[in-house]
Amino acid sequence: MGTEMGLVSFVCLIEYQQLILIWAASGGIMSVKLLGRLVIIVSSAAVMDELDKKGAIYSDRPILEMGGELVGYSQTLVLIVYGSRFRTYRKHFSRYIGGVKPMQELHPLIEDEARRFLKRTLSAPDDLLPNLRKLAGGIILRLTYGYQVIDGQDPFVNLIEKANDNFNAATVAGAFPVDFFPILKKLPEWLPGMSFMQTARDWAKDTAAMVEVPWAYTKAQMAAGKAPPSFVSTNLENEGSMTADDIRDLRLAASSMYGGGADTTVSAEYAFYLAMVLYPDVQRKAQAEIDAVIGNGRLPTLSDQAHLPYVNAVVTEVLRWNSVAPTGVPHTATEDGYISGYFIPKNSLILANLWNMLHDPETYPDPFTFDPERHIATPKKEAQRDPRKVCFGYGRRVCPGMYLAEASLYSCIAMTLSVFDIEKKVENGVPVTPVHENTSGIISYPKPFKCVIKPRSEKAASLITEEII
Asked: What is the pTM of this model?
């Protein structure tokens, strides 16, 4: 088993590197056979646009044996097959967070949780990543289940983050040979190398807890007559007329909100802090804009967004500079078709090389530099594209929570810049310069880095506590 695992990882790595190297000569689309499976690699935004327009036949998901079938994510939105249940999940999302008007109703909730994040960070600036996880968890758990996270170790955040960590580990390319050789799951578990089955069972329990525990909380609150409005409580107002399948789909759609949105948002927010450490001039310019437009008497709100073009550009550049999902989640073709003149057979695996699209020097000059100005200046070429159209996927699988993600990211960034300075940590008299490196997995984070987060002034520190409800 160890040899097979190493082989699969090695093959995936070599194939991917080769495709990156020769992409420029391939027109942005090419194919390779990987352990007998035809894999189509798309590295061009123009080609992805074609996939988007033909989304009806390029929006299915492959069967991921470990993360999907054995660990249980095949029933959540991220991996569920394209069909009627998928469309039901999407309708639920669309009604609640799928547009400008629904999101406006959630602005107070997002801003309140962002203020709580500021207070936690003021008290524990070294706990940046846990604080960001609680920020994302606080927003999604409140809007989904009507649950407000507590300070310290929150049991709901912990159980859902544990399930998400399992998912990321289960979907690392080559980590589990059962993804390539499904027959392995039918072999006796006493055989060498079959320990993944016990791992899968343990992780499946965490997946079930992610689905059932917050759902049970909301149901109990409703029974007691004290459930605040939320995605679950609102949809269960007519529970008596719902079928068992309706309730099942609602329960799994609710769990998909956290699983599909928290990790990506936290990755982007963490990358923002890294960027501010590495590019202090950007930080000062964004702070100057906030000071000029809003002053120092209150925190920025989502209603200020239209008046802060440079801050908005910082938000956009964070999404481009740090690709939270470098290759996205794989799609499969449900029937034969053609893309850019190339024949795409049914059942082909389609990988979108989002990282390459977001770092294409033809579209984004000097792509490894964090430069918000590129999103303000008039593009020299029509090919200049909004990174958000790449970040949030394509076809029928485009992220249904993109409005929530953008609002959450903006709120975190704008409020942070208004009250905090983010600087390099000094050790033994020497400033420590972090390196922008990322973790592996479907969702990629900047690797841990050190920084100093401190209030910009006594007024800023008092503002944080004054704004907390």
From this structure: 0.90
